[in-house]
Write a structure and sequence with these properties.
The complex is a heterodimer of chains A (185) and B (150).
Chain A (H helix, E strand, L loop, with lengths): L1 H22 L20 E4 L7 E2 L8 E6 L4 H16 L4 E6 L3 H11 L5 E5 L3 H5 L7 E5 L5 E6 L4 H25 L1
Chain B lengths: L1 H17 L15 H13 L16 H15 L4 H12 L14 H34 L3 H5 L1
Classes of the chains: A alpha/beta (185), B mainly alpha (150).
Chain lengths: 185, 150
């Protein structure tokens, strides 16, 4: 009897391992960012609007913000543009754009044609800042808390669903205890 | 006449084949010393292109891979060790960028599994051999033992 029990048990164990493995298999092409929970990387970029007034990580302090990496060469960026404009209209967080390996005139034309969802856009001509942010496929968006810490990353096009179901709850979860503490004092 | 033509055609094709390495995607300028060049070669072959995930940085034609190759070159010239450069990439792109994963508590069982399986195999083999040899002994002592055992 034990003769069959042992191989059968081993087989059952293998089946369980494989099922768990399949269930937990990460979605293809989605690689969790090591930046989550860490301070946003330092950067200093030229401002797309005037070429001066540098865009830096200092802009991410003291309030929630969304950092969006995009380029006019990126078709998915066009797909998410409407969602970004919607987030701007809702007005909860400023969107800081990082224009990745792009031509300034094309980027400016894109924003004047499609509308500008960004409070500020920095131009990352050589792609160094995008590498520091661990960007590998535009568009990518990072939700940054008031301490300047990355709390969430969206790989691929931002949508109204992702914004309302994943990002906003994170913002609300953090601001709730703060208001309670404020009303208590 | 036909044979000569064929020979020329083959010669032409093999010359083209020989020229293939010149078409390599990597156009990062060479490093100052052969030692650095060798380390550059090693590193760009063991770091993954994040965009085309099953290619190494060295083989990938996409823009991001070119930027990362350039960064490997700069870090080498800046005097960083191989491990520092690997860590630089892991800090940004997670361990997924390493083709050779590191051992940690989450994958330790995976590293240990071959040893455990080998141990199980040895124990099973030892028990089987022992029971077989006992079988032979008992057969010699009693010709009817086989029918009892099965």
């Amino acid at each position: 009897m034990t003769r069959f029990l042992l191989p059968l048990g081993a087989f059952a164990l293998l089946v369980v391992v494989l099922i768990v493995g399949l269930r937990h298999a990460p979605e293809k092409n989605i690689i969790p960012s090591p930046l989550i929970g860490k301070s946003a990387p330092q950067f200093a970029l030229q401002n797309l609007s005037d070429g001066h007034s540098p865009v830096s990580a200092a802009l991410l302090r003291g309030h929630w913000s969304l950092v969006n990496v995009w380029g006019t060469w990126c078709p998915e960026c066009r797909a998410e543009h409407e969602a970004l404009l919607q987030i701007k209209r809702e007005g909860q967080v400023p969107i800081i754009g990082i224009d990745w390996k792009d031509a300034d005139d094309e980027a400016q034309a894109w924003l004047s044609q499609l509308g500008n969802p960004y409070s500020t856009v920095g131009t990352d001509h050589d792609g160094r800042v995008a590498i520091d942010w661990g960007v590998y496929a535009a568009p990518e968006s990072f939700l940054i808390n008031p301490d300047g810490v990355v709390v969430y990353k969206v790989i691929g096009a931002m949508t109204a669903e992702i914004w309302h179901q994943k990002c906003l709850p994170l913002i609300q979860a953090r601001s709730m205890p703060a208001t309670q503490a404020g009303s208590g004092s | 006449m036909r044979g000569v033509r064929l020979a020329y055609a083959l010669l032409g094709m093999s010359t083209l084949l020989a020229a293939l390495p010149a078409m390599a995607v990597d156009n990062v300028p060479p490093l100052p010393t052969p030692q650095l060049q060798q380390r550059y070669y090693q590193l760009t072959h063991e770091l993954r292109c994040m965009q085309c995930q099953n290619e190494a940085l060295a083989d990938s034609p996409v823009g991001l891979a070119a930027d990362l190759r350039l960064q490997v070159r700069e870090l080498l010239i800046a005097g960083q060790s191989d491990e520092q450069i690997r860590q630089h990439m892991v800090d940004r792109y997670s361990e997924f960028i390493l083709f050779r994963p590191r051992m940690n508590w989450r994958n330790a069982w995976l590293w240990g599994a071959p040893g455990v399986l080998m141990l199980v195999g040895v124990v099973v083999a030892w028990r089987v051999i022992r029971s077989r040899s006992q079988l032979v002994d008992s057969e010699e002592a009693d010709p009817n033992a086989e029918s009892l055992n099965s």
